[in-house]
Amino acid sequence: MNPIAIAIHGGAGTILRALMTAEKEAMYRNALREAVELGHQILQEGGSSLTAVEAAVRNLEDCVLFNAGKGAVFTHEGKHELDAAIMCGATGLAGAVAGVRRVRNPVTLAKAVMQHSEHVLLVGNGAEVFGQSQNIAFEPEEYFYDGARYEQWRAAVASDQVVLDHSLRPENLTEKKFGTVGAVALDQLGNLAAATSTGGMTNKKFNRIGDSPIIGAGTYANNATCAVSCTGHGEYFMRAVVAYDVSCLIEYKGLTLAEACHYVVHEKLKKQGGEGGLIALNQQGKVALMFNSEGMYRASKQNQEPTYIGIYG
């Protein structure tokens, strides 16, 4: 049987053991386990990598612990603006949405853009109108509300700062919620896929969009090289075209998956001041979980091996 594998992330940044209660850590580990094993089950039953990454990311979007879907951070106006992307490594087709407001599962809307439109990226009201035409689930604004997110937003507005969801500030040592979510998968047919979803930055203004919905920056998949989903300070990931750069280093320079990920995350990004990480996977079922921050919520499962779950560096 051909190898199958899936990896997921729930954000990277200042994630310190000293600031995590045992109860909170257990909640994160359980949420990561549930999402990665859900995706793996789909692969095991012969489902596609595209179906697996969508299911895993939907599961994370529905979990209030993560900055995507239900647990998304607040914008400057006190709203939620959600971004997501998905890409098929077999066909090179991709779909993405940005700045959508009441979409329960932005990753599913991104998949609809890929499969039922001639476009790649739809934004704002237009993306929502398209979503309604595709019978995508919408929720009232209250669905996305979370008390800890709300307090985080109030503090950011008061200090007039745009706050990376996973960053830790001295005045906010009880920071509870962290970053983007994503998944990469390899199915029994040898096809790769990647998906990423996020609520962006707390107190973001002017309809700011990060790397998550940008194909090649935060999300990329190509059967010939790898599938990649990124998390971190989006502006740096866009400038460095991180996801595609990993693929290029494999395709044009012959680097291994681990070498390519290490170079981009620990050398290229670091030199530019970019903090964060990525998950990546190739057709051989090799997984890379790479980050240059103190921690990254992550999990993976290959073939019949035990599920791996990690949080700290």
TrEMBL record:
Gene, per the UniProt record: iaaA
Record keywords, A-Z: Autocatalytic cleavage, Hydrolase, Protease
Annotated InterPro entries: Ntn_hydrolases_N, Peptidase_T2
Biological process terms in GO annotation: proteolysis
Key word Protease present: yes
Name under which the protein is recorded: Isoaspartyl peptidase
Molecular-function annotations in GO: hydrolase activity, acting on carbon-nitrogen (but not peptide) bonds, in linear amides; peptidase activity
Pfam families: Asparaginase_2
